[in-house]
Write a structure and sequence with these properties.
heterodimer, A: alpha+beta, Dipeptide-binding Protein, domain 1, B: mainly alpha, 15 helices
């Protein structure tokens, strides 16, 4: 196509930015993989040009040779409902599906994209048409070959709200059913409703429903769990266990290295049971950090791989409900919190301090604003300026038990210091999310809700902070922010993108529709005999390259 | 007595009707709905509403109740709207697990607590009696999760003698399954020991002071024979009833133990079906548990009648 983005030119642009030190090496790699420049291509560019400038690629030590064989035992959350890739939302179902089925691309821990069922992709110059090449020679576990038809059917299914998939929400205003087109036997084109520079993330693993299923998929995954993934589901007992065997016709041989995987399902709240199972070796993997005070923190057999992520607790204020309509009141609360103390208290230090804006440090290229820290005098001043120098009372609603109720208790003690008498209303998860007209997390004046990690800041602010965003708990509406946001999403040039990101972050921090005090690290607890198992910000489990000693 | 039992049995269907109706009505009070459980918090309200409609959850409660009740009675329990598996095999397999755990606990606790209870009763006021009573009381006051956690840490993690999960690997034989059940059964033994041994003790003391026993002793019947032929059959009557009452708890009330040992019993399924708005599954389990409770109680009464010489005698006349 004549108006395609010139990838060669774009690659050079990225390297220019690196050499001007406006982008880090990590940022360059991420941007390159998003527009479809493969890691080898960009590395070659980096090698030839950046190498001359003294910016050598990082050299990793010699990795041990993977060993084939063995069965990995995993403690997994029990799927909440019957497993269906199209509608799933819970960790247990996602775990099961991701062993069996695959995405066009996988989001690596450093937020770069790894091509999986797409061998490559590229945007047009405007960023509103994306063309994906589908990998040749891939077979589904039922023997049928993967083709563009399956990919088209998969995405048409997802963007259609009638499928019941919450992925439809992710595509709203970006992609419609007619925008998904087969343009070749192994080529699929996505014609977007607006330019979206980070579109590949929407068809990658962070949009977890987007696994490619056969065109004939009829909604009964339990009966015919067909996918292209590294493993095949051989037994499934509701609420008890799932057994997987190695997929002998996996396209990326010699992977997977494991002969099989067994999931033992646990109630997600049954923390002691899971920790005991890990400690005694009944399971090898537990997708969580040990609880506070657990001996697992010091167990010599256990590794705790850690990854900074964009998982956070949004502590929001309804900006349309007094006294929270006044930004100074919201800022006062922000200045009352001792963020490092919160992090050491709740996360044993495994989190990064937040700055009340969505550009998490885990996102490549995030702007750095002056860090907000505890300043009681300033907080009191702000309250006084807002006419609330004598303090007031309010109710904070959150879900519990768990880190959110712990966080709420700490918040309560901090805001008491500036005269806010905060009472806590801790609901069960199902009550907190609720249903129909009764959804506290979208309606109460003040609350704390968890946001799972995303690969890009757009995926956070689009739903949470733009005017009318579907999960905009604070009801914040700022035309400046909205305008900057759509510009950011349509901008390819890196320098302009960075400038826009900084403006977005500044506007949000100033308005403080929500306090973002921390970004939780993703920590997995695994036996040291398990190799090549990376923690994941979304708590996904990619076992394609995992092997056992 | 026969008339009394007949009355008790006749009341069972009435009780079950009330229980099932209450289950259906109370389940309406749980916040959220089935569509939200299946589609999750991020689905839109219209998506959730459409699914609720497809599953028939928009119909009036009584209509859904009738549909469920006729299915239950005819043995056609249907498919769980949430889990999408046939309910009857699911519930029966969980019931099987629960029964096995309950049986393991029973086999350990009944002989121990009855024996020690009788010993304490026979030697009322002795050091042995005081020791047994003290242990019984202490265990009675020990919450299940505390006892279970201590056992897990000591015998599972530190000494590594017994597995900490109760579910044996798929395809294990009965012996292996029992091996996995020893640790979870002990906290149940703790809870039941207090009840059963104290009842056995007080029954023994009461009977020892009875006239007929003094007569038997004065008649010169050997001590052992007095114990086995005269004392025990009378002293253990209340114990049988107490044991009968524990059956329901042992089968459906072990949520805490099931969670701590990750055991797929009836209790876990009961809780999850309630929180997930899986109403047919919830109602089926509730009915099953109610039936077990009622039958166990009737059986306890019946065995009381069979064991009680006075009642036997009355029948003989």
């Amino acid at each position: 196509m004549p108006d395609d983005l010139d990838l060669g030119e774009y690659g050079h642009h990225l390297v220019d930015e690196l050499m001007a030190r406006r982008l880090s090496r990590r940022d360059v790699l991420q941007r390159a993989t998003v527009v479809g420049l493969g890691i080898p291509t960009i590395s070659a560019l980096l090698g030839s040009r950046a190498g001359a400038a003294g910016l050598r690629p990082a050299v990793s030590g010699a990795a041990p040779q993977p060993k084939a064989g063995g069965t990995l035992q995993v403690a997994s959350d029990a799927p909440v409902a019957a497993v269906d890739p199209v509608t799933m939302y819970d960790g247990g179902s996602i775990n099961v599906v991701q062993q069996v089925a695959e995405y066009l691309a996988w989001v690596n821990p450093d937020n770069t994209l790894r091509p999986v069922l797409a061998s490559s992709w590229k945007p047009n110059a405007k960023g509103d048409v994306w063309t994906f090449q589908i990998r040749n020679g891939v077979k589904f576990s039922n023997g049928a070959p993967l083709s563009a038809d399956d990919v088209v059917a998969t995405f048409q299914r997802l963007v259609n709200p009638a499928s019941g998939s919450s992925a439809a929400t992710n595509f709203k205003g970006v992609l419609g059913v007619s925008g998904v087109q087969k343009t070749g036997e192994y080529e699929v084109t996505f014609a977007l409703e607006r330019p979206f520079v980070d579109f590949p993330y929407a068809v990658a693993s962070t949009n977890y429903n987007a696994v490619v299923l056969p065109k004939s998929y009829d909604g009964d995954f339990a009966k015919s769990p067909v996918g292209t993934g590294p493993f095949v589901l051989t037994a499934y007992e509701t609420g008890v266990s799932a057994t997987f065997k190695r997929n002998p016709v996996y396209w990326d041989a010699p992977k997977p290295y494991l002969d099989g995987v067994t999931f033992t399902f646990f109630n997600p709240n049954a923390v002691p049971a899971q920790e005991a199972a890990l400690q005694t070796g009944a399971v090898d993997v537990y997708q969580s950090a040990p609880s506070t005070g657990s001996p697992l923190w010091h167990d010599p057999n256990i590794a705790l791989p850690t990854l900074p992520s964009s998982y956070y607790g949004e502590f929001w204020f309804r900006t349309d409900t007094p006294p929270w309509t006044d930004a100074r009141v919201r800022q006062a609360v922000a200045y009352a919190l001792d963020r490092p103390a919160i992090i050491s208290n709740i996360f044993s230090g495994r989190a990064t301090v937040g700055n009340d804006e969505v550009f998490a440090p885990a996102f490549p290229g995030s702007p750095v604003l002056p860090q907000r820290s505890q300043d009681i005098a300033k907080a009191k001043q702000l309250l006084a300026a807002a006419g609330l120098g004598r303090g007031f009372s309010a109710t904070l609603t959150t879900e519990g038990p768990g880190i959110f109720s712990q966080y709420a208790t700490l918040v309560q003690s901090y805001v008491a210091q500036i005269g806010i008498d905060l009472s806590l209303n801790v609901e069960s998860t199902s009550t907190f999310y609720g249903s129909g007209s009764n959804q506290p997390w979208l309606t109460v004046p003040v609350g704390i809700v968890d946001w799972a990690a995303r690969a890009t800041p757009e995926q956070l602010y689009q739903s949470a902070y733009t005017t009318g965003g579907i999960w905009n708990s604070s009801k914040w509406a700022d035309p400046t922010f909205d305008k900057l946001a759509s510009e950011y999403e349509a901008t390819v040039d890196q320098a302009s993108r960075a400038a826009l990101a900084k403006q977005l972050a500044t506007v949000q921090q100033e308005a403080t529709p929500a306090v973002i005090a921390w970004w939780k690290d993703a920590v997995y607890s695994i036996w040291k005999k398990v190799h090549n198992l990376e923690p994941n910000g979304s708590y996904f489990l990619d076992l394609t390259a995992t092997w056992l000693e | 007595m026969r008339q009394y039992l007949a009355q008790r049995i006749a009341l069972i269907p009435v009780t079950l009707f009330v229980v099932s109706l209450l289950t259906f009505i109370l389940a309406q009070l749980v916040p959220g709905d089935v569509g939200r459980t299946i589609l999750g918090p991020y689905a839109t309200n219209s998506q959730v509403h459409a699914l609720d409609q497809r599953l028939g959850y928009n119909l009036p409660v009584l209509q859904r109740y009738w549909h469920w009740a006729t299915g239950f009675v005819s043995g056609n329990w249907g498919v769980s709207p949430v889990l999408q598996v046939p309910i009857r095999p699911l519930v029966m397999s969980r019931l099987g697990n629960s029964l096995l755990l309950a049986a393991t606990a029973f086999v350990i606790v009944v002989p121990i607590s009855v024996t020690l209870g009788v010993v304490a009763g026979v030697r009322e006021g002795s050091r042995t009696d005081r020791a047994i009573s003290l242990v019984g009381l202490a265990l009675l006051g020990l919450p299940e999760f505390v006892g279970a956690t201590v056992l897990i840490v000591v015998f599972g993690v530190t000494l590594a003698w017994l597995p900490v999960t109760a579910q044996a690997p798929p395809g294990s034989g009965l012996l292996t399954r029992l091996h996995y059940l020893v640790l979870p059964a002990i906290p149940l033994v703790f809870v039941l020991f207090g009840y059963i041994s104290r009842t056995a003790r007080s029954g023994t003391i009461e009977t020892s002071n009875a006239q007929f026993l003094r007569t038997a002793r004065l008649k010169g019947i050997p001590r052992r024979a007095v114990l086995t032929h005269h004392l025990l059959p009378n002293a253990l009557l209340p114990t049988v009833t107490v044991i009968g009452f524990q059956v329901g708890y042992l089968i459906a009330g072990l949520t805490v133990i099931e969670e701590l040992f990750n055991y797929p019993g009836l209790g876990q399924l009961l809780i999850s079906s309630a929180t997930d708005h899986d109403l047919p599954t919830l109602a089926d389990i509730t009915m099953l548990v109610a039936i077990i409770f009622l039958v166990a109680n009737v059986l306890a009464d019946a065995s009381y009648a069979l064991l009680n010489p006075r009642i036997r005698a009355r029948r003989a006349r």
